[in-house]
């Protein structure tokens, strides 16, 4: 991984994209064929990706909790799950 790749802003990553990159990092680290300095750098990126995924999951849980059902079983007062 290059310095440029390590510093790419992940704040706009979708959950799926962040998980895919995190899985790639884990696979590289598990193979054990990465130099120590690079291992540390990609581990740190993995930590950032993990935190980003946790943030996205928490936001999704909070949106889901806002959904309420009326007596007929229909959602009421729910906010759109896609943020629109």
UniProtKB/TrEMBL annotation:
Per the record's keyword annotation, is ATP-binding included, yes or no? no
- For this protein, the Enzyme Commission number is 3.1.11.6
The kind of enzyme this is, by top-level EC class, is hydrolase
Signal peptide, first to last residue: none
Domain of life per record: Bacteria
Does this entry carry the keyword Transmembrane helix? no
Q: Where found, per UniProt?
A: Cytoplasm
Q: Which UniProt keywords apply?
A: Cytoplasm, Exonuclease, Hydrolase, Nuclease
User: Where does it mainly reside?
Assistant: cytoplasm
Q: Which Pfam family, an example, fits this chain?
A: Exonuc_VII_S
Q: Catalysed reaction per UniProt?
A: Exonucleolytic cleavage in either 5'- to 3'- or 3'- to 5'-direction to yield nucleoside 5'-phosphates
Functionally, this protein is described as follows: Bidirectionally degrades single-stranded DNA into large acid-insoluble oligonucleotides, which are then degraded further into small acid-soluble oligonucleotides.
Family under the similarity heading: Belongs to the XseB family.
Assembly behavior = Heterooligomer composed of large and small subunits.
Give the protein name, as stated in the record: Exodeoxyribonuclease 7 small subunit
Provide the species name.
Pseudorhizobium endolithicum
